[in-house]
Amino acid sequence: MLEPESFSTILIKCGRTDLRSFVDNLKRLSYNLEIKSVADDYREINVFYLNQSSYDRQIQDLTDNGLYFQPLSRVKKFDGFSNKHEVVDKIGENTSVYGAISKDKNRLKEFKEYFNSGDDYKMGLLLGYPECCCRGYLDYKKKFVDPVYEIAQQSKNYGSPIQLENIPWSVQVHMRYFGFKVIPFFPCDFTCDEAKSFADRWYNLMSSIDSKTTNDLKTLMLKPSTWSLYNCQVLVNRPPSDADFMGYAVSSYFPQKREVDFYAV
Amino acid sequence: MTTILWYPIADKCRNNCLYCFEDPSFKRDNSVFDKFNTEKMAKTFNEIMGGERSKNIQGQQIILHGGEILDLPIKDFEFFLSETKKYSEKPAMQTSLGVPLTSEHIRLIKMYGAEVGISVDGPPELNILRGPRDSDGNKEFQKTVSENILKLKNNNINFGTIVILSKANASEDKIDQLVDWCVTSTHGGRFNPLFIPCHEKQKEISKYALTNQELTNAFMKLLFAAIKYPRFDFRLFEEMKSALIGDFRTGCTFNRCDYLTTICKTILPDGEISRCDRCFQDGYYYASEKGTNIRWKMLEQTECKGCKYFVACTGGCPAEGRDGDFRSKTMYCESYYAMYQCIENILRKMFPGIFLTTDIHNYYEDYYLKNKRFNFLARDNYFIDTKERMENSFKLLGWTPDLERRDQIQESKGGYSHMDTNVSECNCGGDKKC
After folding, report:
1. Which chain B residues contact residue A245 at CB under 8 A?
2. Does domain B2-232+259-289 have CATH number 3.20.20.70?
3. A160 close to B (CB below 8 A)
4. C-alpha dihedral (B33, B39, B44, B45), degrees to nearest 10
5. In chain A, pLDDT over 90 holds for what percent of residues?
6. In chain A, where does DSSP find H-type helix?
7. Does B30 touch chain A (CB under 8 A)?
């Protein structure tokens, strides 16, 4: 397996310059969601990145919401999306502090123990993810760090490309590279009821923070889309397609091409 | 070298060439752009150029391009030439000559000293993939093209050529006729293999794509023509030679082009920046705000792993990727490989002992990116063979042997001899006399 540097970007279709402000709004929404999901007791704990360039504002946000921060490791800063953490020794301009936030210090201590022992299953449960999806992730992780294709195979194990019809739009994770997602975890299956239920709660929370951006996200994720991985590069919405953007991200798999078509509802 | 394309016509091109890489569904009846906005386009252009009104900015090629630019209203045609002239002594334009050249066009071309490039695939009987698809329309188109070529010649306007090599003009039974026409009627230029776009229409286009064997044959004939006729320009030869001797500035094909940003910048009718027009096979998308080198980095470790010429070729143009996938290496890999092999042989026979990029491990990252080009006919022990054999010839050309220059030369670094382009490391003491 090759390990290229993290990278993701979108190319906006001509005439859709409004998507630029949508992407900015979505980033803001995601940040607020990370804090609010814990502050409003949607879950007990969440992961969080403290960045060099804005840690004063971030700490203020945590304080305002009555949250503690538990540092876990120093990682190389990444822009938007990364499949993995690159751990670094020293803190500098290009680093972030990866950690967890909670109202409960004991929970944070517990989370740190699981993190240090690499217990993804228990970390997932603490983060509030469905049990079946935490279990599923352990299997997927053994195969591949970016298991979109593997989950699609679980959902419908035939066809090339795999064509997934009538899956709930909100459990899709193949656009997460660009911040286009509702659920913050890999579902065990794109038809998982638990994941769908989690997504519904999350969608409501997102709408309460910024209903317009959440609606725009839904519109965008409801359109048919394609995902393909080749030579460690993911391409979402390879034209010709009706999508409003073409997405590109770096993954870490080669050499065979893997393709999934999504037709969400 | 960065290329900037003005692209005012975009999806409203009337030529309707068979192999156009824009999906037909984007065109005319289903137009993306209402009309071009000269003000916005000029603003973007000035931003790209840094707003400096200095002339002859090095490494920039600015071309009025895209669709059939002779279709532009004459005042707009002049507008784009005059905007380009602010930055370039010789504004360039590319046309398929599908619209009659008028005396006004001729006057403006002369007045602005424009360099004309024509996109023509040979004499009318070989140029059939260009122009309208119906028989009468195509005949009329070919007539216009021939008349326009004559007008350019009669007005002493030199022109370069972009020829698309396909089964229609470069198969074994046709390539000699094409080469003869190019040598006698043009100064040569670019000879690009037919590019098969990724959209649905490609099935029809791919029927005309040359096999790698046919393309290699066509390339070889053009190479021999370029050697035989000194004035005949075969740009691919130049680009490959440059890549082999460590100068990647001459073109984009072998220059590690990032498909998300591309070396070529296109100014769209709405004034936004898009990628190279070949990417319009995807439809019209704005360029990515950030780029990556992941394509060639991955190819180096996957499809192109172990290839002798990778440092010079880097997988070729991403838009030519196999199966329409830019993540893959060029579909014409075998032909480019054969050309590299041939040009390498020529260079090594001409200059025994010559050092090429293929001889040095990690040349691109360890040398080129650090602004260091090796002196491929240079002066230390690595080049003893060259010196011994050719010193007298070089002296006749004004070259001074190393021993006689020893006091002027900086010691070489890292085992190889370099022409270090980093001025701050020179020994001139800051007076820039070096």
Report:
1. 285
2. yes
3. no
4. 110
5. 75
6. 18-39, 55-64, 105-117, 120-126, 131-143, 148-155, 193-209, 211-222
7. no
Average pLDDT, chain A: 92
Tokens (6 digits) for A61? 């946000």
Q: At which residue do the structure tokens 């997504």 appear?
A: A199
Q: Where are the domains of chain A?
A: 1-39+142-265, 44-127
- Give A3-52 pLDDT, tens digit per residue: 788 899 999 999 898 999 999 999 999 999 999 999 999 999 999 999 98
Q: What is the ipTM of this complex?
A: 0.91
Residue type, A6: S
User: What letters, b where the CB count within 10 A reaches 16 and e where it falls short, cover B170-187?
Assistant: bbeebbeebbebbbeebe
Q: Which residues pair with B286 in a beta bridge?
A: B274
pLDDT in tens, A67-91: 999 999 999 887 777 777 888 888 8
Nearest CA in chain A to B26: A240
Considering the entire predicted model, what is its pTM?
0.86
Q: Which residues of chain B does A79 touch, with a Cβ-Cβ cutoff of 8 Å? A: 290
Identify all chain A residues contacting B275, using CB atoms and an 8 Å cutoff. 11
